[in-house]
Amino acid sequence: MKNQNTYHLVANGPLAHVPDLTIYKQDHDITWIGIDGGNRTLDHYQITPRVVFGDFDSIPNELLEKLKLKVKEIYQCPTAKKETDFQIALNYLLNQKIFMIRVFGWSGGRLDQYLSNLVTLANPKYHEIISKTIFIDKQNFVQFFLPGEWIVTQNTKMKYVGFLTLTPVKNLSIKDGFKYQTKNWSFDKMTCLSSNEFTLASGEFSFDSGVIALIQSKDLI
Predict the structure, then answer these.
(1) In which domain, by residue range, is 72 found?
(2) Dihedral through CA 88, CA 7, CA 163, CA 85, nearest 10?
(3) Less Cβ around it within 10 Å: N or C end of the chain?
(4) For residues 162 and 147, what is the distance between their CA atoms, to the nearest angstrom?
(5) What contacts 17, CB < 8 A, 6 or more positions away?
(6) Buried b (16+ CB within 10 A) or exposed e, 103-128
(7) Rounded distance between C-alpha atoms, residue 165 and residue 144, angstroms
C-alpha cells in the first residue's frame, strides 16, 4: 500500500493553527499518533489515533477514558522526564519503517514548546528520519536538511522561503530558483535568512556541514 509507512503526529499546539485534517481522513494507510494535548485536535476531527503519548495533563479525563477504550497503544509518560512528549514519540518512530512523517500542532502555542519542537531534529539521534519529516501549519511548511546539494520544490500555497540554521553551518550557497542568492556563507550560531522567494518551480541550495530547516510560509489575510 502506497502510504503504509506514513505517520501523522499531532502535538499540543492550538487547533486554530492546525490545517484542515479532513483531507487525510479517507487515507487508511496513515498511522495517526496523538501527543498529549494533540489528542484534543484529533478528537475534534473525529480521528482515532493508533498510538498516543503523553503525561495527559493537557486533556480532560473524559477524553483520556475515551482513548483508553479505542487506542491500540497508549504510552503514559511521567510528568517529570528528560525528554519531551514529542521527542518520546520520535523515539518510537526510530523503530518503524518510515516513508513520511507529517507533524501538526507543533506551533502557535507556548513559545518554549514551539522552539523545542523546531530544534529537536537537529539532534543527531533523529538524523535518520530528518529528511522524511515535514512540519505543517496554516502558514508554514517546514523541511529539514543535512549537508549536501539539494533541489526543493515550491509549495504553491506559500510565498516566502526562509533558511534557518539549527546548528553552525558551513558554506551555504543559495542558487538558481531563488530571488536572493548566496555563495559559501557560514554561520557559527542559529541564524534565519528570511523573506526569500522562489523565482522558478524549484530552487537549488547546498551546504557542507550543519542542519538547516527550510521554511516556506505565507501571510494570513
Answers:
(1) 1-138
(2) -20
(3) C
(4) 17
(5) 105, 107, 108, 109, 137, 138, 139
(6) bbbbbbbeeebbeebbebbbeeebee
(7) 10
Alpha-carbon gap, residue 186 to 203, rounded angstroms = 19
Structural domains of the chain, count = 2
Residue 167's pLDDT is 97
Q: Are strands 148-153 and 160-165 parallel, antiparallel or unpaired?
A: unpaired
**What pLDDT is stored for residue 15 in this prediction?**
94
- The domain boundary, picked from 111, 138, 165, lies at 138
If the chain, 221 residues long, is cut into consecutive pieces of 10 residues, what is the mean pLDDT of each piece?
Answer: 76 94 92 95 96 88 91 86 91 93 92 89 95 97 98 97 98 98 97 98 98 96 73
| Cα gap 173→155, rounded to integer Å | 21
Do both 66 and 80 map to the same domain? yes
pTM of the model: 0.92
Task: Say whether both 111 and 190 belong to one domain.
Answer: no
Q: pLDDT at position 1, please?
A: 39
β-bridge partners, 206 = 149, 173
Q: Which three cell numbers stand for residue 133?
A: 519529516
The pairs formed by 143-146 with CB atoms below 8 angstroms and a separation of 24 or more are 143/213, 143/214, 144/211, 144/212, 144/213, 144/214, 145/207, 145/211, 145/212, 145/213, 145/214, 146/211
